[in-house]
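Run log // design_07
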C-alpha cells in the first residue's frame, strides 16, 4: 500500500473553536426567523455568544426582546445582551427560551443542538449556523435527523469568511432551523442570498 501524505499542513483550530459569525449571516438568520412570526418580545438565548454578533442582529430585529448570552470564556459583555453567563453551555439550564440562535463549536454541534432543543419553550425555534455536511452521517440520519428533522435548511449561497482578511475556504454552510413541537412535515430547503447579492 502506498500512502501519500499532503505537503499542506492542517490549519490550527482557533481557541475554543471560536470563529465569529459574519454580521450578514446573523442578519439573514434573524430575518428568516422574523418571517416565521417570532414574537418581538421573545426570550432569546445565544450559546457560545463570543463577540456578540448574533445578539446584535437579534436586538436590531427585536428591540424589545430579552437576550441572554452564554460563553465558556470570561469576556466583556457585548451591549446587545440583557444577561450574560460565563458557563459551559452543555451544563447550562434556565427558564425556557422562545429562540435559541448562534454558531456552535463544530466539534460539539450535535450536543449543542440537542441541549438547545431541551431549552426551548413550546412553539420555540432553534436556528444554528452549521456546515452543510451536518446533513451527512449514518449516525445522524438514524438519530438526530430522524428524531428532530429540521423545519428549514437554508443553504447560504455565498461562502463565509471567518477571518479579518475576507478570505473563505471551500466549506459550504447552511442555517438550520428547528421547531420541534410543530406538526411533522417535510424539511424545507431554501437558498439564502447575501444582502447586496440579490439578482
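design_07 sequence
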Amino acid at each position: 500500500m502506498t500512502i501519500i501524505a499532503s505537503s499542506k499542513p492542517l490549519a490550527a483550530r482557533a481557541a475554543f473553536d471560536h470563529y465569529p459569525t459574519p454580521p450578514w449571516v446573523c442578519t439573514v438568520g434573524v430575518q428568516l426567523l422574523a418571517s416565521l412570526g417570532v414574537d418581538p418580545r421573545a426570550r432569546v438565548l445565544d450559546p457560545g455568544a463570543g463577540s456578540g454578533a448574533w445578539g446584535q442582529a437579534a436586538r436590531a430585529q427585536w428591540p424589545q426582546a430579552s437576550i441572554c448570552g452564554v460563553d465558556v470564556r470570561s469576556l466583556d459583555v457585548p451591549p446587545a445582551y440583557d444577561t450574560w453567563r460565563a458557563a459551559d453551555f452543555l451544563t447550562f439550564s434556565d427558564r425556557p427560551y422562545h429562540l435559541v440562535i448562534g454558531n456552535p463549536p463544530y466539534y460539539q454541534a450535535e450536543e449543542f443542538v440537542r441541549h438547545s432543543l431541551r431549552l426551548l419553550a413550546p412553539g420555540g425555534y432553534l436556528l444554528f449556523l452549521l456546515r452543510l455536511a451536518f446533513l451527512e452521517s449514518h449516525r445522524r440520519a438514524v438519530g438526530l435527523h430522524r428524531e428532530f428533522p429540521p423545519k428549514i435548511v437554508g443553504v447560504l449561497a455565498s461562502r463565509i469568511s471567518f477571518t479579518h482578511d475576507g478570505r473563505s475556504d471551500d466549506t459550504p454552510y447552511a442555517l438550520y432551523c428547528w421547531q420541534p413541537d410543530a406538526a411533522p412535515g417535510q424539511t424545507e430547503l431554501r437558498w439564502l442570498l447575501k444582502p447586496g447579492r440579490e439578482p
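The chain has one domain: 21-161+170-192.
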